[in-house]
Structure formats: structure tokens, C-alpha cells
Amino acid sequence: MKITFLLTWADVMGGTERAVFTQAAQLAATHDVGIVSVFKTAESPFFAIGPQVEVRYLVDRSRGPERPVSPTGLSAAECAALAALPTEFSAPAWERDIFTRLSDVELGLLLPAIDCDVLVTSTPALTSAAVRLTRPEVLTVHHEHRMAGVPPLPSTPLLDALVTVNERSRAHFEDTLGDAAPLLATIPNSLPVAHRPRSALTGKTVVIAGRLAAEKRVDHAIRAFAKASSEHPDWVLSIFGDGPERGALHALAGELGVSGRVRFHGSSPHMSQEWAKADIALLTSRAESFGLVILEALAAGVPVVSYDCPNGPAEIIRHGVDGCLVPHGDVDAMAAVLAGLMGDRAALHTLGAHTTTGAERFSAARATERWEALFAELEARRGDFARRRHRAERLACRPALDTSGA
After folding, report:
1. Interhelix angle for 101-110 vs 124-133, to 10°?
2. Could you tell me the CA-to-CA distances from 40 to 73, 84, 327, 398, 403 in Å, in that order?
3. What is the CA 31 to chain-centroid distance, rounded?
4. Which of 25, 328, 364, 365 has the fewest CB atoms found within 10 Å of its own CB?
5. How many CB atoms lie within 10 A of CB 244?
6. DSSP per-residue codes, 149-190
7. Burial class (CB in 10 A: 0-12, 13-18, 19+), 104
């Protein structure tokens, strides 16, 4: 089977990108798998992938003005004019500033002629383009990485399947889509198969990893650490990641008097080694659709202390078994849990002893089995007249959907 994953950009450090690279590599063992990235923004992808999976790009933003990667008859001025116009595909607000009329042109060339059996999209705008432009015989699957509670995509009824990364999101779409829903499935993200060093949990390091942006609330992590470490001044907080909040976070650490014990390391391509140096992992996000960073920590034997935010943490962390869930947004409660573990090495080791089974629940092999089963079910329906009838009937139900913002 030929399977193509469609990404906005394949060269950035993001959860969606990592999940796609991991699954593409796993499926490539038994299928012809490729990745198409609409935009090229760097010389090479942040995440490594083997030679079995080809990564192609449509529009180059890595070197000066936006231009198509393939030969084009458009002049530089025409490319610039098209790149300044918004996409014509249905897209939520945050994607309208990403996709342009120039990327529309390149998608319009790619999708009607794409040579694959299954096309897996990863964002609403890409799904809108895929269901509009691909040939009827191509099976279309959207892998939903947004949080539960978001409005359904207007293009959802035209899909063959909608895959979510957590059960809460699947239930949400089942309720909101009703008869307009395509086949719904839940397939959690997973980590790539690799040797991962484990922490001995004998140090005094708390680690938080992620983009330094408002939605990650790393300021909560610094405030909680400052409170907890007042009783344990020999502990440090290591922060991995970059983003617009870095300067403000530096300043906050200084204001709280912990600048000497809060260390900013930037983004690291070697997080498995960094997790092996950690003793406690921290997550303070407003929301996480899944939370691959949790799996990274568990795979390294590191207990995770996380806000009980929507949606992923509570489906991954087993409270009191391999980590702790803290009331959402409660800095004092987070500080209390941290202080408790900092001062109780036996409790920390007890949690750490159960992290292996926690990570194994989300192994790449299990995720691949679910993808294989889904693709087999869809393939069995490909030439069936009922497939086209069901799609037409779902489309007829679409006007009843609340699609605001999608």
C-alpha cells in the first residue's frame, strides 16, 4: 500500500511533526510511505528519518522570498504577489496566516495527481485541500492533533476516516458530528523505536521541555519550583526549548531569586540523553492534545508531575503510579507535589519503578497495529458503492454542523 502523510512543514520541532515522522518510519517497514511538506523552512528536517521514507517539499521559504520548489514559469514578482494573498481553502484563523495563494497553486498541482492509496492529513487547511482535490479512489484520513472541544472541520463528512490521539476527542466528534461523521478511530501518538537511557533518579534535577510560549505556561513551572525549592535549595530546574517567552522567563527567575538554579538550555535534538539526567519531569501547559513529552520522560524512567489539563495527560499518566496529576492551573498544589517528591526519594523511586509499563502502553508497535487495522478496513471499502453513498449522505448532513472557526 502507498501511504502519504501531508504536513504543513516537516523541518520544525513540533509534536505533530514528530508523531508523523515516527509513524511514517514504522509503516515503511511494510508499506511504500512518503511525506509531503507544503513548506520548506530549513535545510533539513529537525527529526531524522531513514532513507525508506522520502520527504518532498512544495514551497521553499528557507532562502529568501517564497518560491515553488519545482521548476515554475512564475516570475519572482508573481510569486511574491501570490505569497501575499490568503489561502482559498477553508482554514481556521491560525492557518490563514500560514497558507497562501502560492501554496494553493502547488497543492492544486500535487493533489489531483498524487500517487498513493491513502493520504493522511494533519491540519484543517490541508484536509480541506485534500478532500477537494484528490481523486475519488484515494482514501483520505485526517489525523486530528487539536484539543478536544474544537469545532469539527467543514470537510469532515468527505473524509474516509477521522483519527484522534485521545478518547475524549473521539467522543467529542462522535457527539458533534452525528450522522455526518466518517469512520472515527483513536490512535495515540508514540515514540520512535530506539534505545533510551534510563535515569537512576539519584540526582536533583527537575526538567521541563517544550516551546517557550504562553500556552505552555513555563512561568508556572518557575513559580512552583521557586516555592518548592525554598525547602530544597540544592535542586535545579532545567528548561529545554526556545520561544517568544524566553526573555520574560529569564526575568521571572531573577525576580523570584532562583536565576542561579533555573537553567535555560534551548532546544536539544538529544532529549533522550537529557531525560536520563532528570529526576522529575514537569508539565504546566494550558492544554495538550496528547503530550509526547510525557512519554519521553516515562521511557527514561522519570516520573511526571503535570497539570490535569485537557486532554492528553490524564490518559497517559497514572496518578500515584508513574506520576502525579495536579489540579489545573494550581501553582501552589504543583509546588507542594514537587516539594514532596524532592524530600522523599523512596516515593520518587516507587513512581519511577512503574514508568516502563506506562510508556509501553503507547509503544510504536501498538500504534502501528492500530494504523494497519484502520487502513485494512478502509481498503476493503475502497471500491464499494456504499463508500460513495455514505460520503454523499454525510455531506447532506453537513449543514446541521456548527463549523464556526474551522
Report:
1. 40
2. 20, 17, 40, 34, 30
3. 23
4. 365
5. 10
6. TPPPPTTGGG-SEEEESSHHHHHHHHHHHGGG--EEEE----
7. buried
Taking the C-alpha atoms of residue 94 and residue 99, their distance in angstroms, rounded to an integer, is: 10
What is the spatial distance between Cα 277 and Cα 198, in angstroms, rounded to a whole number?
8
**Complete edge-to-edge strand list for the sheet that includes strand 304-307:** 262-266, 236-240, 205-209, 280-283, 304-307, 323-326
CA atoms within 13 A on the CB side of 252: 18
Question: Helix 76-83 to helix 101-110 angle, to the nearest 10 degrees?
Answer: 100
The helix (H) or strand (E) run that includes residue 60 is strand 54-60
Residue closest to 17 by CA, chosen among 109, 100, 97, 122: 122
For residues 31 and 1, what is the distance between their CA atoms, to the nearest angstrom?
A: 5
Q: Is 354 exposed, middle or buried (0-12, 13-18, 19+ CB in 10 A)?
A: middle
Tell which residue, 205, 266, 264, 263, has the closest CA to residue 232.
205
Answer whether residue 247 shows pLDDT above 50: yes
pLDDT cut 90: percent of the chain above it: 65
Peptide bond into 311 cis (omega under 30): yes
H-helix or E-strand spanning residue 109: helix 101-110
Distances from the Cα of 264 to the Cα of 50, 149, 209, 294, 334, angstroms: 31, 33, 10, 19, 20
Residue-wise pLDDT for 76-106, tens only, equals: 999 999 999 989 887 777 788 899 999 999 9
All 3 cell numbers of residue 112?
489531483
| Dihedral angle sign, alpha carbons of residues 306, 310, 312, 314 | positive
Looking at residue 374, its amino acid is: L
The phi-psi region of residue 253 (left if phi > 0; otherwise alpha if psi is between -120 and 50; otherwise beta) is alpha
Q: For residue 159, is pLDDT > 90?
A: yes
